[in-house]
Amino acid sequence: MFVDNSGRRSRLLRRIGLLMGVGCLVYAVVLGAAFMGWGTSLAPSSLLPFGNGGPRGSQNSGPGGAQPQGGIGTPPSRPTGNPPTGVATGEPPSSAPTATASAAAY
Amino acid sequence: MTTTSSRGRRRAPTRMSRAAGKAAALQKPRVILALLLLLALTSVMLLDGYLRAEVGGDQRVRTGASAGKVPDKVLDGGPILTFQGGQATTVSVPDKTIALTFDDGPNPTWTPQVLKILQEYDVPGTFFLVGSMVSRYPSIVKDMVDEGNEVGIHTFTHVDLSYQSDARVDREMEQTQLALAGAAGITTTLFRAPYSSETDAIDNYSWPIYEKLGEDGYTSVFVDTDSDDWKKPGVSKIIKWATPEDGKGASVLFHDAGGERSQTIKALPTYIKKMKAAGYTFTTISGVMQEQNAAARQATGTGQQQAASAAGAGAATEGTTGTEGATATEGATGEQPGNVPNGEGGTSGTGVNGGTGQTINRLQAAHREATGVTLYEGKALIAAVTLAEWTVPTLSVGLMVVGVAVMGRFGMMLILARRHYRKRNKRRFSWGPTVTRPVSVIVPAYNEKECIANTLKSLAKSTHPIEIIIVDDGSDDNTSEISREAARDLGMTNVRVIRQENAGKPAALNNGVRSASYDIVVMMDGDTVFEPDAVHQLVQPFADPKVGAVAGNAKVGNRDTIIGAWQHIEYVMGFNLDRRMYDLLRCMPTIPGAIGAFRREAVLEVGGMSEDTLAEDTDITIAMHRGGWQVVYQEHAKAWTEAPGSLKQLWSQRYRWSYGTMQALWKHRKSLTDKGPSGRFGRVGMPLVVLFQIITPVFAPLIDVFTIYSMIFVDFQAALLAWLAVLGVQLGCAAYAFRLDREKYRYLLMMPLQQLAYRQMMYLVLIHSCITALTGGRLRWQKLKRTGEVGTPAGVS
């Protein structure tokens, strides 16, 4: 029973075993690489060819950028109503309207 | 003294050594393959655990931390936070504009429904996706992106990042990017932190993360208006809470996953219709940024044309400038949205992504096309997850099969063993008239010089009239002379010694059967010692003319070593539970070679012992069943045998047994479709034997793998308790078996240890022999080393 004198089955199985072994190894390596983030760098800044230009560009418009600080003066009043209710209680819908309503001066 | 020439099949030493060399060579790749399989299995399970937050999961959520270090302008700013130029900048949503955002997806049930609604109303959304879910349901994400929605990262495992190390934060982001790349061929610059909400909820612990991610180029997105749909407050409340007041714009939070979301699904169409009726338009986060960008340009006088060119030249570069401006002129932007082309119409993609020059929808300006290594690694990740998603449930099914089989077997054994014990030990029970006629005892012996004298001595005390036929299977250690001398010393006149050239145990047994003078033959091993009444007890069932063969009760003599004790437990359970069960089910698969009795005519009728398999005892037993003979178990016929004393010996014995059992089952596979008693065995006995002796042990490693896994990653205590419970059941069964056989319980102390080493060895042996069977390699009888220490029945009542 079971004995295969030609050795063909054994050779076939050895090949399947080899494939399986390689498959297992590849699987483990792929997972390890994907988990550790090897091989690629995926932060958006490193994906952009002129990623360095971005920040500089905005710095150039420094004066324009300075403006916001002053301009923001209007919105602050709106969220001030939120902090007390905040996330913790999760009730912004009820409080936010009143807060904003009073602040909706603009 | 007769010498029988054997037919062919000689063990040429050269071939043997060659085979041994080959086996040793095969051993290595086999072991390596096994280790690789184990590695892959571990990876699969760890991945699966990671996806389900069992591995590396972290349930902590920070609340109530102070926000002293967070800039006020961020706390009070709009929901879109960028760090271009290292400066925190917020963008708010223009009036009469809604950026629908959905967190925690994709989910196979709810996300497609959300997408359908969005498509129906021609409204884009922004989905903040959990990477693990992306990798599990990639096709949903692909559809989502194809339909014009924008996606952002909501980490890979939905952890509160403020508790995690920088490395973990990086991993969470990169893994999600990979998953997105694999699923939809894109990466994204949008991010929303799990458990985040409005910007004013940013605290000192989460702020550094936004800063860090911002420096990496991520845009963090918060919420203006929270529908709080996860609280399932009812459709009308969801709509009410999601509606910004006074025509303001808002980044609105819904959830398309993370629980039952039917209320969200119900609320969404009504909400969209209501807001559209109120003059609102819908856009994505990128849409908002570009609108504000354009508006800022107008307000600062840079001109409207540049708004278009801003998108064309690269969203990141120019967009930033505009963004800052937008915040500055927020008050002024109020009236602008009408002038700026809004989200819905914007299918004329003008954005540039990743520098590849390919245009994509400007509502998806945050997307970058994934290319090269990223794309392939992403696809590999998705494939790996898919494989794990298939493997783990399959393994779980295997584990269930094993669990049910093991427990069912224990239950069945207990019930049937009890019934068997009661039935056979009733005072009134008898097989028929007492059998007193003499019988032949056949002792095949191959190099048994240590044991044969003891064997003869025990037979000399037999209470039943016997003739003893020792078949010397070409021993080269003087077994024949030693037996003859022993017989002379003991004054036995009923001993015959037959010599044959070495031809294997089946041939020796056949030789003995041919030479037997009586109609009942008892077969025993040369290393076995009978109790005085063993033969008498063993042949009593032959009073029933239907009985063709009887199995005796073999006991381990050398039980004072660990290996011996393990085998002792195994034998006691095997004989007192398994064999009793099989006896009542009339499908006993094996009559032990150590002690069994056959009707001579029955043996001859089925063609004698066959050399087809390495387990001639199993082979002939099955053949007897198929020939319509009854095979019963006689617990009172006890023989003491010497169990293998080393792991190596045990391995080779069990290797042969399991290989031989498989051969025998395969040889008799036709019985499955036979009629009559043969078919009965084929349809009752075969499945039971295959299930209990092959399938269960092959899948048994799963028990260990899952136990170890759950001990490490899920719940150590629960897993340990489960393991102990199974051990308890086994101990209970073993104790019952010991009770039936009136054995000393102290050997049961070895049982926990048996579960940690012996059981594993048994399944490894079985897997080994399965592989040998598959490859078609040759496996031969190997003589076990004997010491002859089992001389007198120790501790016998």
User: CATH topology of the largest domain in chain B, which one?
Assistant: Spore Coat Polysaccharide Biosynthesis Protein SpsA, Chain A
The total beta strand count of chain A reads 0
DSSP summary: helix tally of chain A: 7
The biggest sheet of chain B, with number of strands, parallel, antiparallel or mixed sense and barrel status, is: 9 strands, mixed
**Pairing-aware structural class of the strands and helices of chain B?**
alpha/beta
- The CATH class of the largest domain in chain B, by name, is Alpha Beta
* Fourth CATH level, the homologous superfamily of the largest domain in chain B: Spore Coat Polysaccharide Biosynthesis Protein SpsA, Chain A
> Mean of residue pLDDT of chain B?
84
Tell me the series of helices and strands of chain A, N- to C-terminal. Answer: HHHHHHH
How much of the sequence lies in strands of chain B comes to 5-15%
Rg calculated over all Cα atoms of chain A: 31 Å
Structure notes:
The complex is a heterodimer of chains A (106) and B (797). Chain A is mainly α and 106 residues long. Chain A contains seven helices and no strands. With 797 residues, chain B is of the alpha/beta class. A nine-stranded mixed β-sheet of chain B has the order 1-18-17-16-19-22-21-23-20, sandwiched between helices. In chain B, helix 11 crosses helix 12 and helix 22 (647-667) crosses helix 26. The radius of gyration of chain B is 39 Å and the shape is elongated. Chain B starts with a strand and ends in a 22-residue tail after the last helix. At the A-B interface, helix 1, helix 2, helix 3, helix 4 and helix 5 of A face helix 1, helix 2, helix 6, strand 10 and helix 12 of B.
